[in-house]
Amino acid sequence: MFQVKATVIGFLGDEKRYPCHFGHKIGDEFIYDGEKFIGRICSSMVPVLIPKMIAVHATGPRQIAPYHSYYPFWYAPASLRDPSQKKYDGLGFQNVLKDFVEPEYYLSGMTPQNAYKWPPHGVRDIAKDTSKVVCLDNKTFMTMQIEAFDISDKGFDVPFFRRQMAIITKVLPKPGIELDKILGEFSKEQIEGIYPALSQIMIQILAEELDLMGYLKIQDGKVSATKKGEEKLKDFQKKLTAEEREGFFCQGKSRVRGNPSVTG
């Protein structure tokens, strides 16, 4: 899971003529840290912003449109109605093999970048970016950029975050360890005695999130901790209480099916 930030990046409408009554400015930030929302946000943004932030909380930078980006029409040129063409295309349209230049604040400004260009955009990435949301106020159309900026260590994400820190402790001394070998670095007590219980799929999921945020590097099935990951682990350790440090570093005791000790 990820911490998420939404930043005001502009206004598609004429904000000088129709000023934002909430007073939002370019650069304003609104954060979800996995436990609480931080910052000011206009109620007109809530219906479109919060669901997207929760989606990015789960997916991080992997979040893309569920289907929009697959449509081939993004790579077709603009068109005009032409009944004489119906015998060819079945509907009656004529290609416009040039790009239209629209006036400022025209509604087409909401069209995904690089769509309907001629020559066409050569990379299939149009409409994949769902990280932008637009205000429901159709006079100003305030636009916010959503991004995952860190893994989440708050709310119900805490146990998963601690497992991620434990994964870094296993990878650090063994750079280049195979991803499917990491589970073997944990004892049975360490695997089953702490929530969430570890498994190969759990290691894969948590390690992938660490890789997305730059704390691990996974390449060709091999895993290494980065300097950023090492610093993240040190920072986490500094914030632990004495009792938590004891548990995390395998010095405490816990009953796990009769076994006396587990690690964090």
Overview of the structural elements:
- With 264 residues, the protein is α+β, with helices and mostly antiparallel strands.
- The protein contains 7 helices and 10 strands.
- It has 3 domains: 2-63 and 130-151, no CATH class; 68-110, no CATH class; 155-248, Winged helix-like DNA-binding domain superfamily/Winged helix DNA-binding domain (Arc Repressor Mutant, subunit A), CATH 1.10.10.10.
- 26% of the residues lie in helices and 18% in strands.
- The strands form 3 sheets. Strands 3-2-1-7-6 form a 5-stranded antiparallel β-sheet, with helices on one face. The protein has a 3-stranded antiparallel β-sheet with strand order 8-10-9.
- The longest helix has 14 residues, at 46-59.
- It is elongated and about 75 Å long.
- The two termini are 19 Å apart.
Write the layout of secondary structure elements.
Layout: E1 2-11, E2 29-32, E3 37-38, H1 46-59, E4 78-81, H2 86-89, E5 93-96, E6 132-134, E7 142-151, H3 158-171, E8 177-178, H4 188-192, H5 200-212, E9 216-219, E10 222-225, H6 227-238, H7 242-248
Antiparallel strand pairs: 1-2, 1-7, 2-3, 4-5, 6-7, 8-10, 9-10
Helix pairs in contact: 3-5
Keywords:
264 residues; Arc Repressor Mutant, subunit A; 3-stranded antiparallel β-sheet; 26% helix; 18% strand; elongated; disordered C terminus
Tally of helical segments: 7
Helix content: 25-40%
Q: What is the H level of CATH, i.e. the homologous superfamily of the largest domain?
A: Winged helix-like DNA-binding domain superfamily/Winged helix DNA-binding domain
Broad CATH class of the largest domain:
Mainly Alpha
Approximate strand percentage: 15-25%
Main sheet strand line-up: 3-2-1-7-6
Instruction: Give the termini separation.
Output: 19 Å
Q: Which radius of gyration do the C-alpha atoms yield? A: 25 Å
* Helix and strand composition category: alpha+beta
Task: Enter the CATH topology name of the largest domain.
Answer: Arc Repressor Mutant, subunit A
CATH architecture of the largest domain: Orthogonal Bundle
What number of domains? Answer: 3
How many E strands? Answer: 10
